[in-house]
Amino acid sequence: MDADAHSKRGRFMGKLFGRDRKLPSANAPGNEDLNSFLRGPSDTLTAAHAAPQMLAKLDTSNARRYPNALDVNAPPSPAQLSPQDMAMRPRAHSPRLRNRKGLVVRFVDTFPDVIGEGGDECSVPTVEIGKRKRAQSAPPPPAHMTKVSQLQERERSHSDAQQEEFVPKPIKRTATSFSVADGPSPAPAPAPAPAPAPAPAPRSSPSPDLVPPPPPRHNARRDIHDISVADIPAVPAGTPKASRFLDNPVVSTDENRKSFIEINQAKQRQAEGMAFAQAVRRSASASSEHEWEETRQKLLGPMPGTPTESRASAASSVGADSPESQPRKPAAEHSPASVYSHNSTSSPAFSQRWPSMRERPRLNESPTRRVMPVPETPTIDDALSIFTARTSHLFELFRLQAEAVKPVLSCLPDDLARAALWWFLKGRMALEMSIREQPQTSQQKEQIEASRQQAYADLAKAYWLFEEVLPDIMGTRSSPVDAEVQDAGQAIMSQLRKLSSSMKRNGFLPPEEAMPSHAIDQSIWVEYPVISQDIMFLLWGSRGGALSQQRSVTAMPLLAALPLGDTAEMFCFGRYFVDVFLMEQGAENQPLHFPCFLSMTRCTKQSSLDFCLASQNGSVQFRIQSNKAAGPTWEDVKWRAEKSALEVRLPRGFVLVVKCRPHDFKVLWGMQDFSSKALATLQPRKDEEVVFRSALRSFQYLDSNAQTAAFPREPVRNCDVGLFEKILKESSPTGQRTYHRGFRLAVVTGPTTKMLSAVNHMYIPQSPVQFGFLRGEQSEPALLLRFDDGNSNGRMVMAFNDEPERLRFHSLLIGTAVEQDEKVYSEVPIMGYSISQNARFEPIKGFSQFPWSRVRIINEDGEDEVPETVLAEKLKIVVDFKCGTISDRVNVAPGELKIRLSVKDKATLSILRQPQRDLTIALSESQVSKQTPDDMRKALQFTSREPSVRNFTFTSQRNLHEFEEALTGFKVLFDGTAATFAISRRRMVVPIYKKWEATGSRIQVVQSENIIQVLVFFEDFHHGESMSFPLKPTDVFETVTRNKLVGVKIDDAKFPLPRMPGDDDESADDGAFVCLDLPEIPGEHDDITILFESEEERDDLIRCLPAPVKGARMSKSFAK
Questions:
Q1: Residue 654 and residue 592: Cα distance in Å, rounded?
Q2: Alpha-carbon torsion 392, 397, 400, 406, what sign?
Q3: Measuring CA to CA, which residue among 640, 617, 620 is closest to residue 631?
Q4: What is the Cα–Cα distance from 216 to 245, expressed in whole angstroms?
Q5: I want to staple 768 with a disulfide (CB 3.0 to 4.6 A). Which of 74, 233, 531, 936 is the partner?
Q6: pLDDT value at position 36?
Q7: What's the CA gap between 382 and 509, in Å, rounded?
Q8: How far apart are the first and last CA of the chain?
Q9: What pLDDT, on a 0 to 100 scale, did the predictor assign at position 92?
Q10: Cβ neighbours, 10 Å, residue 818
């Protein structure tokens, strides 16, 4: 060392560390705090100059390169000396004034606050820990400040922080060569000779406005490209005084003290000022921070080959350029000091070590290498940044509370994710409730304010767990991020952004001043009882023990147990905070208490509602659903209204009791009751049968009452439709009989629709079915139906998947469908159809206007056998016309079906029907008049109360015979008109015969198997209107001739007399019609003579007789 003292190096070191070194001034910035505390304010009056007015634009053409550029050749003034210059001056040996004599300074008695670990082996510098602590505890700036005022505030806070952070270090060797810590600069100029030190400052403490603040310290790890726009204040053009970043000259005015480091620093700050001026001008035209970064890079350019550049590029590859990996920071943390420190609200460590919470990592990809930039709305990010900045002072309190229970670093990511979901749900629910409540008194207002502050804290817990704690834990592990945890993080951050934006828009963000922590619940972990694995599986919905169910029972996904909202696979209808108690038989007084969330959800692939119970620690993951194989069902639940609780029966004598608030209990019961009733409409009832089930392409419900909420008015896709036939079953002497009583149409929204809606309408036979064929938006077949059940009326439009499906549904509803076990036995054209009160009255109004087309007889397919026409539940007459159909079900008992043939009109057939309630009339709404539905409704109501007559007019007699055979089961062998029909009757006492003769009678011979009957219909015959009698092979027939009339005589025929019209109309109708399946018992045995005008008709009758006719030429052939 002695030899070195005489060398150049030794002399230089002596200048710095020897006796002749110049001591720093007592007024160095590092001593200002101590001097200010010990000496107090100065007696000298100092003037504080106001800050220069900020201009709207910068006039760069007239402005100098920076506002206070001075003459480089002029010597520096004491006020312009930088801290570096002042540190190189000799120490002033002026006597001190003890104006604070007797002042006592002592240490505090409080326990020291541990803010981090330091030392030579610590990876984080000690100064970084201090900066991080101050950045977390610093209050956020006001939200209403403008951009320019925010920048000035950040500058002041940075300057103050620099003065507070300055701690003199041991004097080290000053670098005289180019340093990697400095930014890029032009070629160095020759350093001038040292200048004499300036005179020492006066003893009195100068005013803060007159003392220049120290320039920002440059960290060796920081590059000029790491500075953001928020780090640089606004610089109005033409102001005589610069802002705090540019208040020192570019080149030191002391020519003797210029160094390369000072020149390099001055050049950097000059470039920063120029670039910021351009950025401010761009901000007037809505420019972004990205444009400022490009401008700054163009002005300065990167310094290739430097460690700082390689470090910055590595950080950029991790995600520094991604807007998702670097969310917006609050204004309070845009200071230069906060750039170096750990940002408590944005967590750069999390963004570098862990991928973005908004994207799922690809397979086999490390989370430390992947960043997926997802653009976000700046307004939403700003709102979230403001929220986190105003609640970040609680983060350390959260950590202390969490560490008091268990080490945070030992927690599993699933537990942290579940806890974050828990606190987010609890905070959002409390915030919404506090906003909805309207305080009436000051005490209520204080309670609402306290609950709102607690809600802010709970939301901050969720953010802290995911953005602060979870990245630190994942940074210590080599395993990639679980996709389930990442999905939960994406959902939480997305919901937090939306909620923050809503709070900002409605003015409900946390206050700018720090919330008092003593009145806030800072706990992170909810206390739960310790349970065994067997009990845990029971609380997971298992029906057996742990050994038998541990393979089959799995934990619920995080977002399924604690859903934040709707997802692609599930709908969430809300949630309530409940208390769950697990009790065992015999130990009801010692229940296990589990605070849980009860969520009402429904999977998009199922229709039933689920209740999901979930605790914070995952010990309770209990679902109540409809599948017995999956766990407890609604059949195991008992609703206790008096206790506002749900009781669920569990295996092995356990009972799970869910205690709710009374209001919550009513809502839960109402939702489940409505859901079960709505879904029950798609199930057949006791007296119903399912005839049609399908999923409609779309369904639209248009009620005439616009205020009804039974179903959405807009079209809804994928609705489930069910058509149910109402059946009436009765016991009779012939057995049990069934009758059609209409249809019930039920439509329920499908599983893919969140809001459950259901409609249920009856289509009874007493009202016509009004329909219309339509086409949907994509040309899909649609059906319009009008409904009117008294309480409501309107229309429904159902779009089907294809044309056959629509025709199937339509035919079932109007009763014209032909099932697989049915067959059409007759289909003939008709010319007319009408309904009248009896055979002598005019038809009911409305039927004569329809253009009739055909009539069909549908009955059960008896294969080779003739189907039954009596007690036939599937026999029906279907009459088609151009604008609708009539479906007449002929489900009659023996003796009820009666027919009559017209004497004058050979092609008319009338059927007498008793009061019936299974007649269906369908009308095309667009093809009939407005009065027609009312006329048909009256006709249907009449047929349901009184006997009625159906009149069919066919195009030919042959079609009539075919129809008659299919309806009655009797084949027509002969059909003609007799000139004379005579009945011989012997008197009671004397052997004298009296004949009843009727002219112009309609004669018809019908046969069913071995039974042959003669049907006779009279007109204007005072003894009766009709009669029928059977013909047997034992009867005697002979031909007769009388007055050019030829005919057949039946000797000693057995027959009933024609019935006379009674006093009531019903007897008269019965007398005009004959029954084929149950003829009257013969009460007479006399001769009957049938005469025709032509032999051809007589011969046709002879061919139908069951025995030979005497005197007939056809007797021999008949006998053969």
A1: 11
A2: negative
A3: 620
A4: 8
A5: 936
A6: 52
A7: 12
A8: 159
A9: 43
A10: 15
> 927 and 851 in contact (C-beta within 8 Å)?
no
Burial tier of 472 (Cβ tally within 10 Å: 0-12, 13-18, 19+): middle
pLDDT for the residue numbered 22: 52
DSSP 583: E
Taking 90 as the threshold, does the pLDDT of residue 275 lie above it? no
Tokens 């939403």 sit on residue:
380
- H or E element: which one contains 807? helix 803-814
The CA distance from 1014 to 1028, in Å, is 5
**What backbone phi and psi angles, to 5 degrees, belong to 650?**
-115, 160
| Residue-level pLDDT at 430 | 94
- How long is the chain? 1120
Mean pLDDT is lowest, of 157-171, 1071-1085, 1093-1107, for 157-171
Q: What is the 3-state secondary structure (H, E, C) of 14-63?
A: HHHHCCCCCCCCCCCHHHHHHHHHHHCCCCCCCCCCCCCCCCCCCCCCCC
Least confident span in 137-151, 373-387, 948-962: 137-151
Per-residue tokens: 762: 């009856």
Residue 315 has pLDDT above 70, yes or no: no
Tokens encoding 529: 């009882």
Say if strands 822-836 and 1045-1055 run parallel, antiparallel, or are unpaired.
unpaired
Whether 728 shows a pLDDT value over 50: the answer reads: yes
Q: What pLDDT digit, counting tens, does each position of 773-793 carry?
A: 999 888 999 999 999 987 788
119 — alpha (psi -120 to 50), left (phi > 0) or beta?
left
Q: Please, what CATH class does the domain formed by 970-1119 belong to? A: mainly beta
Burial class for 523, CB neighbours closer than 10 Å (0-12, 13-18, 19+): middle
Q: Which two tokens stand for residue 956?
A: 């030919």
Task: Provide the residue ranges of all domains of the chain, joining segments of one domain with +.
Answer: 381-506, 533-545+554-678, 691-718+729-814, 816-967, 970-1119
| Per-residue pLDDT, 124 | 66
CATH class of 816-967: mainly beta
Classified by CATH at the fold level, domain 533-545+554-678 comes out as: PH-domain like (2.30.29)
Alpha carbon 430 to its chain's center: 22
Neighbours of 87 (CB within 10 A): 19
- 970-1119 and 816-967 share a CATH fold: yes
AA letter at 290: H
| pTM for the model | 0.65
- β-strand partners of 1031: 1012
> Which position has the higher pLDDT, 82 or 837?
837
Residue range 467-517, pLDDT digits in tens: 999 888 888 777 777 899 999 999 999 999 999 999 999 999 999 888 888
Q: DSSP labels for 468-535?
A: IIHHHHHHT--SPPPHHHHHHHHHHHHHHHHHHHHHHHHT-SPPSSPPPSTTS----SPP-----HHH
Instruction: List, edge to edge, every strand of the sheet that includes 1011-1017.
Output: 1026-1031, 1011-1017, 993-1008, 971-986, 1084-1092, 1045-1055, 1036-1042, 1109-1110
Answer yes or no: is pLDDT of 272 > 70: no
- Whole-angstrom CA distances from 171 to 84, 87, 175 are 12, 10, 12
The distance between the two most distant Cα atoms of the chain, rounded to a whole number of Å, is 183
Residue % of the chain over a pLDDT of 70: 63
Are 580 and 614 in contact, with CB atoms under 8 Å apart?
no
Q: Which of 485, 197, 225 has the alpha carbon at shortest distance from 339?
A: 225
Q: At residue 679, does pLDDT exceed 60?
A: yes
Alpha-carbon gap, residue 998 to 986, rounded angstroms = 18
Neighbours of 403 (CB within 10 A): 12
Instruction: Please name which of 1052, 1080, 889 lies closest in space to residue 967, comparing C-alpha atoms.
Output: 889
The strand pair at 919-924 and 769-775 is best described as parallel
For residues 836 and 843, give the distance between their C-alpha atoms in angstroms, rounded to a whole number. 4
